[in-house]
Queue: 2 jobs
Job 1
Amino acid sequence: MQDLTAINNFLLCETPDSWVETALENQDIMLIDHANCEKKAASTAINMIYRYVEKYDLLNKMSRLAREELRHFEQVILILKKRDIEYVQLTSSRYASEMRVGFRTHEPAKLIDSLIIGAFIEARSCERFAKIAPHLDPELQLFYLSLLKSESRHFLDYLNLARKYSDTAIDERVAYYAELEKTLVLKPDTEFRFHSGPLTS
């Protein structure tokens, strides 16, 4: 299994066990929203390719990331088809939008914040894949464990690019988003999604 020490050190909390329990009871929704997450991740990477054409390292990393996320999307929708799960529209979770609280809109701060947020989203996805995998059927378990290597690399790609393109240390911004991310993961939610907090009782 992929070593997730760097990710676990980066995140300030584990996914609550109650989220895992809810996910196991709602695997159809988990898979549908997982497909949505892969699609959004690819879209985010492609948008960066359009926005920051002068940054070669970013273009290269985001191009590879987008291809991998779309491949994961294809794998998830194949699983949906095999299991006769209809790929329906779901409302988005609050996680991604609320991670943008305090987001800076001037450059280069906008890029740095975008990259740091991307690092947290990838890190949390990876942590959740690892946490829920042991409880899934063999096919899903194998699939989720197979994602750990690429997702952990995506986390590092985002974080390293943030360090590369920032004129100053990013520790303060990482700490800010770490606390925000922890709050969102532990905060009760009204509907289950892949990045939701525990459901309200």
Job 2
Amino acid sequence: MAGARRPTVRDIARHAGVSVATVSRVSRDDPKVRPETRARVRQSIDALGYTPSALGLGLAIQRHHALGIVLPGLGGPYFAELVQGIESVAVGTGLAVTVLGTHLRPDADRAVRQLAQRTDALIVQAGTVEDELLDTIAASLPVVVVAGTSRRLTTVRTDGAAAAHEITAHLLQVHGYRRLRFVGTPDGSPDPTSRYEGFRRALAEHGLVESGGPLRFGFEATSGALAARELHARGDLPDALVCANDELAVGLLATLPGLGHAIPGEVAVVGFDDNALAGLASPMLTTVHQPVFEIGATAARLALAPDGPPPRPDSHVLETWTVVRESCGCPPVVGGPIDATEKTGASA
């Protein structure tokens, strides 16, 4: 019919009940697509009269034997463990891994587009790339988002709000603390934003408000040290500090005692992630265990599946739990931090 809209790859995917990445794989005769899926897609292509666009073919015409990872930065134990989890799957399939850090890059969008042209799938940390750009790339390439939500793409994450609510409730209910403050910058990045929301919700349920706004110095251990010095200078220590990650908490643990403040005697400190330093710190850090390695591995398995990620947004929420150690005010447990772990199941 004259003037009729030309069908797109998304129309074919919707008609066949598959992902747009699967349509592209069928268009280029990718042998990994299951025969029954291939037949269903070809039937939809014939029914709708679809012709792959030059742009789609340009992105998907060949296999590069590489998996791309897009992160805001490359430093810190969280990103290191996430990449290790992704690599554990990619290496087993014979793919190389290429990591792009976008922090402070004025050409970040262009760099992400170029990476997409050199890889067979992308795993992207939530909040790192604009949704519109990801949608464009996902039309021809499998894309999985980690540590956040998406209206259109498959995601792998934990429920940071529920986990932060749980560890904050521990401070309120078990220890009776009433003056609590959040350490971290809950702006822009989904992870600290959700953790801050859970922190505030736990306070509200106990008829409390936060004892001052978030201490916004960043997310590294040095940022925790800066927060410690700021609190000391103002002479306004709360009962407890709830940190957006373990690095901030370790910075506080390393700095506050030198300024004359006992942990947990004068102020309790808790973290999030349960990285390798949490059980080695003194006092040992009470924190939320987040399965970062498995988040990466799950994202890689979804991105590299024969038929690509599911055709509709699919959120995989992995379990977290509170790890009770010493920094919250609980006594040391004989046997070490493993025996002190309370698996309370903060998951959706």
